[in-house]
Amino acid sequence: MVTKSEISARPGRPREFDTQAALDKAITRFSEYGFHGTSISDLNACLGLTSGSIYKAWGDKRGLFLAALDRYIALRAEAIAACLASAHSGRDKIESLLTHYARLSCEATGLTGCLVVETAVELSLADKEIATLIAAQQNRREAQLRRLIEEGQLDGSIRKELDPANMAKLLLTLQQGMRVVGKTKTDAKRMLGMVCELMQLL
Protein backbone atom coordinates (compact mmCIF):
# COMPACT_ATOMS: atom_id res chain seq x y z
CA MET A 1 0.00 0.00 0.00
CA VAL A 2 1.35 3.45 -0.94
CA THR A 3 1.45 5.87 1.97
CA LYS A 4 0.84 9.62 1.80
CA SER A 5 4.47 10.29 2.78
CA GLU A 6 5.71 8.14 -0.12
CA ILE A 7 3.43 10.01 -2.50
CA SER A 8 4.72 13.36 -1.20
CA ALA A 9 8.33 12.22 -1.62
CA ARG A 10 7.98 11.51 -5.32
CA PRO A 11 9.21 14.09 -7.84
CA GLY A 12 6.60 16.71 -8.60
CA ARG A 13 4.62 16.48 -11.82
CA PRO A 14 2.21 19.01 -13.28
CA ARG A 15 -1.38 18.35 -12.28
CA GLU A 16 -3.34 16.93 -15.15
CA PHE A 17 -6.77 17.96 -13.90
CA ASP A 18 -8.77 21.14 -13.38
CA THR A 19 -8.50 21.89 -9.66
CA GLN A 20 -11.51 24.20 -9.54
CA ALA A 21 -13.71 21.74 -11.44
CA ALA A 22 -12.64 19.01 -9.00
CA LEU A 23 -13.46 21.24 -6.04
CA ASP A 24 -16.89 22.00 -7.50
CA LYS A 25 -17.62 18.27 -7.66
CA ALA A 26 -16.36 17.86 -4.11
CA ILE A 27 -18.64 20.69 -2.96
CA THR A 28 -21.66 18.86 -4.34
CA ARG A 29 -20.64 15.54 -2.77
CA PHE A 30 -19.90 17.01 0.66
CA SER A 31 -23.08 19.13 0.57
CA GLU A 32 -25.23 16.10 -0.21
CA TYR A 33 -23.63 13.51 2.10
CA GLY A 34 -21.51 15.44 4.58
CA PHE A 35 -17.88 14.97 5.53
CA HIS A 36 -18.33 11.69 7.39
CA GLY A 37 -20.70 10.35 4.77
CA THR A 38 -18.05 10.75 2.08
CA SER A 39 -15.13 8.34 1.79
CA ILE A 40 -11.97 8.64 -0.27
CA SER A 41 -13.37 6.00 -2.61
CA ASP A 42 -16.52 8.14 -3.01
CA LEU A 43 -14.28 11.07 -3.92
CA ASN A 44 -12.30 8.93 -6.35
CA ALA A 45 -15.52 8.15 -8.20
CA CYS A 46 -17.00 11.64 -7.89
CA LEU A 47 -13.91 13.60 -8.89
CA GLY A 48 -12.52 11.01 -11.28
CA LEU A 49 -9.18 11.15 -9.45
CA THR A 50 -6.98 8.52 -7.81
CA SER A 51 -6.28 8.63 -4.09
CA GLY A 52 -2.70 9.58 -4.96
CA SER A 53 -3.84 12.64 -6.89
CA ILE A 54 -6.11 13.73 -4.04
CA TYR A 55 -3.37 13.31 -1.43
CA LYS A 56 -0.84 15.14 -3.59
CA ALA A 57 -3.16 18.06 -4.26
CA TRP A 58 -4.81 18.47 -0.84
CA GLY A 59 -2.96 16.26 1.66
CA ASP A 60 -5.95 14.19 2.76
CA LYS A 61 -9.76 14.17 2.79
CA ARG A 62 -9.91 16.96 5.37
CA GLY A 63 -7.58 19.12 3.27
CA LEU A 64 -9.83 18.61 0.25
CA PHE A 65 -12.87 19.41 2.38
CA LEU A 66 -11.33 22.66 3.64
CA ALA A 67 -10.41 23.68 0.08
CA ALA A 68 -13.96 22.89 -1.09
CA LEU A 69 -15.46 24.86 1.81
CA ASP A 70 -13.22 27.85 1.04
CA ARG A 71 -14.24 27.78 -2.63
CA TYR A 72 -17.92 27.39 -1.73
CA ILE A 73 -17.80 30.44 0.55
CA ALA A 74 -16.06 32.48 -2.16
CA LEU A 75 -18.60 31.42 -4.81
CA ARG A 76 -21.53 32.24 -2.53
CA ALA A 77 -20.07 35.70 -1.85
CA GLU A 78 -19.86 36.34 -5.60
CA ALA A 79 -23.43 35.15 -6.16
CA ILE A 80 -24.75 37.35 -3.35
CA ALA A 81 -22.88 40.39 -4.67
CA ALA A 82 -24.40 39.83 -8.12
CA CYS A 83 -27.83 39.40 -6.57
CA LEU A 84 -27.59 42.72 -4.71
CA ALA A 85 -26.10 44.67 -7.61
CA SER A 86 -29.40 45.07 -9.46
CA ALA A 87 -31.41 46.21 -6.41
CA HIS A 88 -31.56 49.81 -5.18
CA SER A 89 -33.18 50.35 -1.77
CA GLY A 90 -32.24 48.41 1.35
CA ARG A 91 -35.62 46.68 1.26
CA ASP A 92 -35.21 45.68 -2.39
CA LYS A 93 -31.78 44.26 -1.67
CA ILE A 94 -33.10 42.13 1.18
CA GLU A 95 -36.00 40.89 -0.93
CA SER A 96 -33.64 40.06 -3.79
CA LEU A 97 -31.36 38.17 -1.40
CA LEU A 98 -34.17 36.20 0.22
CA THR A 99 -35.66 35.37 -3.17
CA HIS A 100 -32.26 34.12 -4.27
CA TYR A 101 -32.10 31.79 -1.25
CA ALA A 102 -35.67 30.65 -1.82
CA ARG A 103 -34.88 29.62 -5.39
CA LEU A 104 -31.63 27.95 -4.31
CA SER A 105 -33.64 25.84 -1.86
CA CYS A 106 -35.94 24.36 -4.49
CA GLU A 107 -35.72 21.23 -6.60
CA ALA A 108 -32.25 19.89 -7.52
CA THR A 109 -30.19 22.65 -5.88
CA GLY A 110 -32.32 22.37 -2.76
CA LEU A 111 -31.68 18.65 -2.45
CA THR A 112 -27.94 19.25 -2.77
CA GLY A 113 -28.09 21.64 0.15
CA CYS A 114 -25.72 24.25 1.54
CA LEU A 115 -22.18 23.23 2.47
CA VAL A 116 -21.98 25.86 5.23
CA VAL A 117 -25.19 24.65 6.88
CA GLU A 118 -24.17 21.00 6.48
CA THR A 119 -20.77 21.72 8.02
CA ALA A 120 -22.23 23.73 10.91
CA VAL A 121 -24.50 20.83 11.86
CA GLU A 122 -21.98 18.04 11.35
CA LEU A 123 -18.58 19.38 12.37
CA SER A 124 -18.81 22.52 14.50
CA LEU A 125 -18.70 20.62 17.79
CA ALA A 126 -15.96 18.22 16.72
CA ASP A 127 -13.50 20.44 14.87
CA LYS A 128 -12.45 23.80 16.36
CA GLU A 129 -10.77 25.07 13.20
CA ILE A 130 -13.81 24.38 11.08
CA ALA A 131 -16.09 25.80 13.80
CA THR A 132 -14.11 29.04 13.66
CA LEU A 133 -14.40 29.19 9.86
CA ILE A 134 -18.15 28.62 9.97
CA ALA A 135 -18.67 31.17 12.76
CA ALA A 136 -16.73 33.77 10.77
CA GLN A 137 -18.87 33.09 7.71
CA GLN A 138 -22.09 33.36 9.72
CA ASN A 139 -20.91 36.63 11.25
CA ARG A 140 -20.14 38.06 7.80
CA ARG A 141 -23.58 37.17 6.47
CA GLU A 142 -25.32 38.52 9.58
CA ALA A 143 -23.33 41.77 9.44
CA GLN A 144 -24.24 42.16 5.78
CA LEU A 145 -27.93 41.73 6.56
CA ARG A 146 -27.70 44.26 9.36
CA ARG A 147 -26.11 46.79 7.00
CA LEU A 148 -28.90 46.25 4.48
CA ILE A 149 -31.54 46.81 7.17
CA GLU A 150 -29.83 49.98 8.31
CA GLU A 151 -29.57 51.11 4.69
CA GLY A 152 -33.30 50.54 4.28
CA GLN A 153 -34.06 52.51 7.43
CA LEU A 154 -31.98 55.41 6.10
CA ASP A 155 -33.62 55.39 2.67
CA GLY A 156 -37.11 54.99 4.17
CA SER A 157 -37.88 51.57 2.70
CA ILE A 158 -37.72 49.74 6.07
CA ARG A 159 -39.50 50.69 9.30
CA LYS A 160 -37.21 52.67 11.60
CA GLU A 161 -38.54 51.07 14.80
CA LEU A 162 -37.11 47.68 13.86
CA ASP A 163 -33.98 46.53 15.71
CA PRO A 164 -31.40 45.90 12.94
CA ALA A 165 -29.39 43.39 15.01
CA ASN A 166 -32.39 41.24 15.93
CA MET A 167 -33.88 41.40 12.45
CA ALA A 168 -30.55 40.42 10.89
CA LYS A 169 -30.46 37.30 13.08
CA LEU A 170 -34.03 36.47 12.05
CA LEU A 171 -33.21 36.86 8.35
CA LEU A 172 -30.08 34.75 8.64
CA THR A 173 -32.05 32.05 10.44
CA LEU A 174 -34.65 32.10 7.68
CA GLN A 175 -32.01 31.80 4.96
CA GLN A 176 -30.39 28.81 6.63
CA GLY A 177 -33.75 27.27 7.42
CA MET A 178 -34.70 27.44 3.76
CA ARG A 179 -31.62 25.40 2.86
CA VAL A 180 -32.50 22.78 5.48
CA VAL A 181 -36.13 22.55 4.35
CA GLY A 182 -34.93 22.35 0.76
CA LYS A 183 -33.18 19.06 1.57
CA THR A 184 -36.63 17.52 2.06
CA LYS A 185 -37.73 18.50 -1.47
CA THR A 186 -39.91 21.58 -1.41
CA ASP A 187 -41.28 23.74 -4.20
CA ALA A 188 -40.67 27.32 -5.26
CA LYS A 189 -44.21 28.46 -4.47
CA ARG A 190 -43.87 27.55 -0.80
CA MET A 191 -40.42 29.10 -0.46
CA LEU A 192 -41.36 32.33 -2.22
CA GLY A 193 -44.48 32.53 -0.06
CA MET A 194 -42.23 32.56 3.02
CA VAL A 195 -40.28 35.47 1.58
CA CYS A 196 -43.52 37.38 0.93
CA GLU A 197 -44.68 36.91 4.52
CA LEU A 198 -41.35 38.00 5.95
CA MET A 199 -41.13 41.11 3.80
CA GLN A 200 -44.34 42.33 5.41
CA LEU A 201 -42.46 42.56 8.71
CA LEU A 202 -40.10 45.14 7.22
UniProtKB/TrEMBL annotation:
Keywords: DNA-binding, Transcription, Transcription regulation
Transcription regulation listed as a keyword: yes
Coiled coil regions in record: none
TM spans (from-to): none
Name of the protein this chain belongs to: HTH tetR-type domain-containing protein
Record feature DNA-binding region, as residue ranges: 39-58
Biological source species: Pseudomonas versuta
Domain of life: Bacteria
Domain HTH tetR-type: 16-76
